[in-house]
């Protein structure tokens, strides 16, 4: 089975990197394999095997803190993915009677925890966007209430690729004494992220997208002094006789055995990012995105979503182009792209229902092309030709 998967992957042009990066730096797989055969359990022993796991985990905290300007590494917490990170932050900081401002750009990893809290008495307000998916920033002030406690916002739409000005939102939060929880799932590793500049209280991220790490890795960076209630309780490797879970970070939010094998892979991926440079990664990926956009934007019958006019300046977009061809269902287009042309894309709603309501694509969905450092100009040209042929057949 694995051999068949490898043969299929060799022939595939993979443009679904906003969901997960399939091609990783080769050292990531090597690091995971090394950890699988050499690591013990971090914090659960004094053997070299246990200490090796602890060393990798701590050094990865340091690398993440350095990449995101997150302060003390002990404030960087490991989770399974951004969904877990956002659930920890949202449920650990917000409760009944609080008011939260969020946006229509959000992924269900933000929306569903908030909708669940709303059933328990949390009040929600949504900042809307224009027809190109750009946020209407003036609405933040309009939504302010006496009981407003937090803003929860993505750094970039996973549907349109539009980047949100988190610095402006962070200044709004500081002005009004609000907590600021930022979802950087779509930008971490492929776009400059600075927790200090954003004035964010919590950054939530995943390891398997732009960070080039394994699935099952993620985390959050928490500003010192921000007290998040534990999402789970259990073994921590320290203070075993306490009835309560330990209060100090990072173990306060890390009950149970961490994914040391995955974190080893993430550590190797972070080395690749540091050596290559986030700006270089962003420039290459966006060059591929712009090449594709220029190739498809004027094709008769093709509708491209998102703001490309103001977004073409540096650091205003992620490497995403989402489109539809005539009235074709997005799933049909995506199936044709894979079965006929060997091109992997993402159709449908992308777990972002309010964004699709705003764009008027609830029924049709959208076909998303998302580009990575490991894609090539030749692959982009093949995708442009495929879209042209499909549009001609409409």
Order of helices and strands: HEHHEHEHEHEHEHEEHHEEHEHEH
Proportion of residues in extended strands:
5-15%
Ranges where pLDDT stays below 50 over 5 or more residues in a row are none
Please give the number of β-strands: 12
Helix and strand content put the structural class at alpha/beta
Can you describe what's shown?
- This protein is of the alpha/beta class and 394 residues long.
- The chain has helices at residues 2-11, 26-38, 48-68, 82-93, 108-119, 139-142, 166-176, 195-198, 260-276, 278-296, 330-341, 353-359, 377-392, and strands at residues 13-14, 76-79, 99-103, 123-127, 148-154, 179-183, 202-206, 218-222, 302-305, 320-325, 343-344, 367-370.
- The strands form 3 sheets. It has a 7-stranded mixed beta sheet with strand order 2-8-7-6-5-3-4, with helices on both faces. It has a 3-stranded antiparallel beta sheet with strand order 9-10-12.
- Helix 8 links the parallel strand 6 and strand 7 (202-206).
- Helix 2 packs antiparallel against helix 9 (260-276), helix 4 packs parallel to helix 5 and helix 10 runs parallel beside helix 13 (377-392).
């Amino acid at each position: 089975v694995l051999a068949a998967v490898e043969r299929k992957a060799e022939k595939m042009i993979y443009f679904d990197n906003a969901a997960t990066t399939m091609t990783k730096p080769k050292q990531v797989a090597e690091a995971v394999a090394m950890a699988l055969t050499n690591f013990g359990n971090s914090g659960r022993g004094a053997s070299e095997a246990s200490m090796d796991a602890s060393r990798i985990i701590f050094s990865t905290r340091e690398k993440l803190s350095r990449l995101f300007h997150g302060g003390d590494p002990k404030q960087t917490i490991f989770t399974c993915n951004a969904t877990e990170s956002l659930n920890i932050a949202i449920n650990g900081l917000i409760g009944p009677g609080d008011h939260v401002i969020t946006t229509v750009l959000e992924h269900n990893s933000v929306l569903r925890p908030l909708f669940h809290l709303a059933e328990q008495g949390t009040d929600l307000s949504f900042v809307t966007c224009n027809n190109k998916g750009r946020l209407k920033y003036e609405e933040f002030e309009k939504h302010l209430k006496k009981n407003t406690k937090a803003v929860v916002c993505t750094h970039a739409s996973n549907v349109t690729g539009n980047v949100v000005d988190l610095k402006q939102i962070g200044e709004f939060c500081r002005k009004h004494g609000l907590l600021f929880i930022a979802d950087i799932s779509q930008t971490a590793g492929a776009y400059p992220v600075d927790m200090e500049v954003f004035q964010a209280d919590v950054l939530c991220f995943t390891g398997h997208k732009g960070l080039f790490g394994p699935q099952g890795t993620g985390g959050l960076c928490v500003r010192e002094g921000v007290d998040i209630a534990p999402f789970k309780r259990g073994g921590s490797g320290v203070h075993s006789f306490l009835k309560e879970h330990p209060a100090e970070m990072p173990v306060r939010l890390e009950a149970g055995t961490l994914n040391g094998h995955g974190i080893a892979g993430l550590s190797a991926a972070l080395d690749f990012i540091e050596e290559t440079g986030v700006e270089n990664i962003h420039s290459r990926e966006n060059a591929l995105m712009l090449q594709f956009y220029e190739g498809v934007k004027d094709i008769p019958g093709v509708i491209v979503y998102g703001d490309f006019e103001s977004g073409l300046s540096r650091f205003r977009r992620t490497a995403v182009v989402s489109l539809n061809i005539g009235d074709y269902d997005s799933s049909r287009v995506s199936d044709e792209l894979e079965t006929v042309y060997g091109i992997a894309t993402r159709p449908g709603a992308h777990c972002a229902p309010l964004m699709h309501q705003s764009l008027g694509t609830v029924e049709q969905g959208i076909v998303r092309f998302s580009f990575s450092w490991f894609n090539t100009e030749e692959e982009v040209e093949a995708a442009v030709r495929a879209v042209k042929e499909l549009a001609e057949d409409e």
